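#struct-help
A.M.: can someone run this one for me? Single chain, 730 residues.
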Amino acid sequence: MARRRGETGALPSKAALAEFINETPGKVGKREIMRAFNLGGSDRVALKHLMNELADDGLVARRRAQQPAKKPVLVVEIATVDHDGDLLGRPIVEGSDELLRVLVGRQERPAPGVGDRFLVRRVGKRDGMDETRVIKRLPRAAATALGIFQNLPGGGRIMPVDRRNREELTVRPENRGDAQSGDLVQVDVLPARRLGLREAKVTEVLGSADAPRAASLIAVHMHDIPDGFPPDVLAEAVDAKPARLTGYREDLREVPFVTIDGADARDFDDAVHAVALEAGGFELTVAIADVAYYVRPGSALDAEALKRGNSVYFPDRVVPMLPEAISNELGSLKPKVNRAVMACRMRVGADGAIHGHKFLRGLIRSAARLTYEQVQAAHDGRVDDTTGPLLETVVAPLYACWKALAAARYARAPLNLDMPELQVSLNDAGVVEAITPRDRLDSHRLIEDMMIAANVCAARELERLKQPCMYRIHDQPSREKLRNLKDYVATLGLSFSAGEVPRPALFNRLIDKAAKTPHADAVNVMVLRSQAQAVYSPDNIGHFGLALGHYAHFTSPIRRYSDLLVHRALIAGLGCGPGALTKHEAERFAEIGEAISNTERRAMAAERDAMDRYLAAYMSSHVGAVFEARITGLNRAGLFVRLAGIGAEGLLPISLLADDRYEHDERSQALVGRRTGRRYSLGTSLRVTLREATPVTGGLLFELAEGEQAEAPPRRHKAKAVKRQKGRRR
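D.P.: on it. Structure tokens below:
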């Protein structure tokens, strides 16, 4: 096992220490732990207390030399309550996103709810979810909550805005502040009483919950997204001065770079240029905003950027990683103005292979700000005043170079999932006007492939320079997930070789087999669910989904801290000016990688939640309407369905399937009627009626449309059902 190095005297977290003890073969004593984490003699007492805490929590055995706990115990925090009233919790120390069912005794008082913590033991599995039984209750973490205030006699009530947390709270008159009915409020949850609802104190009124832009506001506060910059950070950004030509910065202002982004893009951090070479192939240059010049290690800007980890994008707003003075000005490659860049110049063969690359610091002057639609229209023969003069000299060489890169991508065979992305269109008041699938143009693929090429070169260059690299890694799927996928597709009559060495091409063949069947969407969903999650790490294992052995994020330092670190490492290795990676940063790469992986997951969850609320707001005027839908998920709570065309997803509760008692068949991913054998299977199309839409939580509730019913059972199952009925008649 790789040694975990930290700062001298810096104790590891509980999670890191528990992981080390559980992953290291044999017994682990203080000596092994101190060596692994580079601790000094003065840390012995603190380490002893930390190890005792782990033993108290049941995470390691209490012995002279620490061992993993013999029984699988862990600490969980209750995250939600499902439709059957079961408590679902997430592990705390493991740092996992896994949901576990928590079995609590009836005598547990006060009644447990969201936010309560328990030491639990894994005891089995039901409906595809691990079950745990409570060993003891732990002190509850200090909690805040977001909700809608309702004025009531003698105080008020807080209605939750998170559909996964249905716990209401009461507010005494002295704790309501300036809150009025219908206000979106932030509250502190007060210590629980033995009986009744828990109490809360209003700490901030955020505005009306009915406001059109409340969806993103709720997401920002629910997920603790830092919003608003401290004064010292803003001051540093405003004081930053434009970079100038110096001995380490090359003049690239005569090169006709262009930026190609979405029509609604607010910042432009990448520009591209390609030219055909007489000897064959192309010279492709990808120029990226030189954010490292403005955001230096140890500055207030840097500390805030690391805290945020990345920008967060909503339909109506962006919560940026950096203040606008950097992200929308000095770090944005606007046309016709001088901008500092880190550039990757690549020699691309006619076959799309990269035969050489060079990184440099430069100054560019973008020729034009183009949109994906503009570039695609120009390539297809519909030029406008901006693209007309650039067609032959800029647009045509870019497409020619991209066709070579696309051929190389096709040969590499990365994972090719077909998962449409939704686009929300808002009017000036922030009200949803339309929700449509986002177009996927060749111009999108052009930029994507060119950015991937530059990212690969960045990882390889840092390896050549023997500099630390913050890799973007993606592990191959686990054996268990492969077996589950094989079992599922077998029920559809499709084959999948789970015994082969996993390769993206293996999944692509399965997706291609399903493409012309009614199960195409379901297979895409199940393949996606089988994949590991990509993360940031200084330890390279390659990127499975992209079928690449070396990959780092280099192309978006305005919005991703990982890319800023890669820029700094390149500057350090090439010795090309200020803003280089420091030794202190390099030593913390593992810790930083974990932190920015977490902020990325936080951003993704916030963006999903906001999208759900926008969808629910749009659908609220369609209650009672009938829609074509497809089953995208199911469990014992019911069916999760996605509407055709719109993409909105919601729940059809199992309680509304009134013609039979349905049970979850995990292997075939279906709900099967106990009496009739009729079934609802993943991927099945059906007609549903929208019963309820709740914009504040993002919840959509459906029921079967009139006349809609489950699939008929297989003949064999039907015969068994009849036989059982005859037996009962006897």
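A.M.: thanks! Residues 295 and 302 are 6 Å apart (CA to CA).
D.P.: also worth noting: The radius of gyration is 28 Å.
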